[in-house]
């Protein structure tokens, strides 16, 4: 009887080993030819970005100087919402959308009905009508003045960059700059915000009044850390993040229940996932390479070394269903409060 029991146990253990013969996790995603990551489409950029003439816009504050027999200076004149400037004696003059030279000629034409020798000079003293808007997951979303020479990287810097939070005192990016878009005249400008930050002239283009920079949240690019860790949670993906960092943010492996020798990484579509295994103990001793993660990866610390791939997917399925709902927005937002 003991011999039969021993044979059965040996068979069960052998079956478990055969069932869990998973490929080792590649150090970088491209090391596995069997996995095809989604292609990242980069905007092509703008080949030519010439400066535009400075125009007067509604909301601008101007200083008007008139020169004739006497010189008069009028400070703090505001261009109203209709683009009109109220000029003493001449009344309301349409200047909105005109260059400074064109606006000066329009003011002179209005004044020369009373003084044919008068000349006018306009200076924009406050660019309150030259505004661009930053919306979405920025540190300081809002309206920002567009001054001559201002570029996309300058606008992003004024808004404080992408929003960040902290998880266990580790900085976490909550705004997705890779998917950020510059909107102009009811269309999208084909530029990359990350490349603009690096100073690429095709992408770090001049900002124009009325531009809108939209920074989406990182909910489209999460890494899930689940299983036998102290604080299972979604993490905001950032380029270059590795397995050890993701586990550290989640509080590390639960030593009482987690198997440090069997860390699973589920990658790709859940209908046809690619599942890898890696050994955290070997990583700590320098015998294994820290794995670079990609958006959508699921890091799962199994409780038992003989857990199958089906066991892993069955365990994470309810949580992933949540990730596909609007509830994940609240989860991602909570990263900053941990």
Structure in words:
The chain is of the alpha+beta class. It has 3 domains: 137 residues, Outer membrane lipoprotein wza fold like; 66 residues, wza like domain (wza like fold, 2-Layer Sandwich), CATH 3.30.1950; 88 residues, Outer membrane lipoprotein wza domain like (Outer membrane lipoprotein wza fold like). Helix content is 22%, strand content 25%. Strands 7-6-12-10-11 form a 5-stranded mixed β-sheet, covered by helices on one side. Strand 15 and strand 16 form a beta hairpin. The longest helix is centred in the first third of the chain and has 18 residues. It is rod-shaped, with a radius of gyration of 31 Å. The N terminus and C terminus are likely disordered.
Low-confidence sequence ranges: 3-19, 322-338
The value of Rg in angstroms is: 31 Å
Q: In sequence order, what are the helices and strands, one letter per element?
A: HEEEEHEEEHEEEEHEEEHEEHEHH
Return the CATH class of the largest domain. Answer: Alpha Beta
Question: What can be said about the biggest beta sheet?
Answer: 5 strands, mixed
**Which structural class is indicated by helix and strand composition?**
alpha+beta
Number of helices: 8
- Whole-number tally of structural domains: 3
Q: What proportion of the residues form beta strands (DSSP E)?
A: 15-25%
- Overall shape: rod-shaped
Distance between the termini: 55 Å
β-strand number: 17
CATH architecture of the largest domain: Roll
Largest sheet, order of strands side by side?
A: 7-6-12-10-11
* Mean pLDDT figure: 81
Q: CATH homologous superfamily of the largest domain?
A: Outer membrane lipoprotein wza domain like
CATH names the topology of the largest domain as Outer membrane lipoprotein wza fold like
Percent range of helical residues? 10-25%
């Amino acid at each position: 009887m003991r011999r039969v029991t021993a044979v059965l146990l040996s068979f069960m253990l052998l079956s478990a080993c055969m069932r869990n013969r998973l490929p080792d996790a590649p150090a970088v995603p491209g090391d596995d030819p069997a996995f095809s990551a989604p292609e990242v489409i980069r905007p092509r950029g703008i080949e030519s970005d010439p400066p535009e003439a400075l125009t007067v816009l509604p909301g601008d504050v101007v200083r008007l100087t008139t020169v004739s027999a006497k010189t008069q200076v009028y400070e703090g004149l505001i261009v109203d919402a209709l683009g009109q400037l109220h000029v003493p004696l001449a009344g309301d003059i349409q200047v909105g959308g005109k260059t400074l030279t064109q606006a000066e000629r329009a003011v002179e034409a209005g004044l020369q009905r009373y003084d044919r020798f008068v000349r006018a000079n306009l200076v924009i003293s406050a660019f309150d009508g030259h505004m661009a808007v930053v919306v979405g997951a920025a540190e300081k979303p809002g309206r920002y003045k567009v001054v001559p020479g201002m570029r996309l990287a300058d606008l992003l810097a004024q808004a404080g960059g992408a929003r960040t939070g902290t998880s266990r005192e580790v900085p976490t990016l909550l705004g997705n700059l890779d998917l950020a878009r510059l909107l102009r005249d009811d269309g999208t400008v084909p530029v990359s915000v990350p490349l603009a930050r690096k100073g690429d002239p095709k992408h770090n283009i001049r900002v124009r009044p009325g531009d809108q920079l939209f920074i989406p949240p990182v909910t489209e690019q999460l890494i899930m850390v689940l299983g036998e860790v102290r604080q299972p949670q979604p993490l905001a993906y950032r380029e270059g993040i590795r397995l050890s960092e993701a586990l550290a943010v989640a509080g590390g492996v639960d030593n009482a229940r987690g198997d440090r020798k069997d860390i699973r990484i589920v990658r790709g579509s859940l209908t046809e996932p690619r599942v890898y295994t890696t050994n955290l103990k070997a990583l700590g001793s320098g015998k294994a390479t820290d794995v670079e993660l990609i958006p959508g990866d699921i890091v799962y610390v199994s409780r038992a070394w003989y857990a199958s791939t089906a066991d892993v997917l069955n365990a994470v399925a309810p949580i992933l269903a949540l990730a596909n709902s609007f509830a994940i927005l609240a989860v991602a937002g909570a990263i900053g409060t941990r």
